[in-house]
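name: query_chain
kind: protein
chains: 1
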Amino acid sequence: MTALTPEFTLSRIHAALPEARVELLNNPSPSGQHSLVVHREDALQVAEFLKADPELLLDYASSVSGVDCADHLEAVYHLFSIAKKQGPITLRLRTGDRDKDVGVPSLTPVWKSADFQEREAFDLFGIRFDGHPDLRRLLMWEEFADHPLRKDYVAPEDYEYEPTPHGAIVTKSQTQPSLVTHPATSLNA
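structure:
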């Protein structure tokens, strides 16, 4: 069995999809975990190939992370072959910039395990996953205007800004009969 490496994976992609724009990104750190940067216009076709190719069988996306780089955002996928018991292969999809061109194709149609993780990257980094079956916020509330893991995010000075009607809840709790009597109030009765 051939070891599943980024170099071998890249050679399989180029042999099957010669027009696909994929390049090897070397990691000079001690881990040496290199990754494949896939052009976003080729991402869905490459992902389908990676899952279906009998030499690769990358059938499981274990994680999807967002990364905020200086001039673009990245969605990083860690892929494994459960069938071959090998991996990970790291794929990177880059946006055009950090502000307006922040879309990449969703790979959820290929790997269902990417569903909530793409939503998390959308919510916290603002990466728009085009074609995602249910792209909406996962952790922040719908009215939240920013993406809190972006490097340009400015935290508010007042942490009581969550749009929860605290006063209305307190008033309602005081006017509604309680099912449980607090021990301190039952002693005075």
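note: The longest strand covers residues 60-68.
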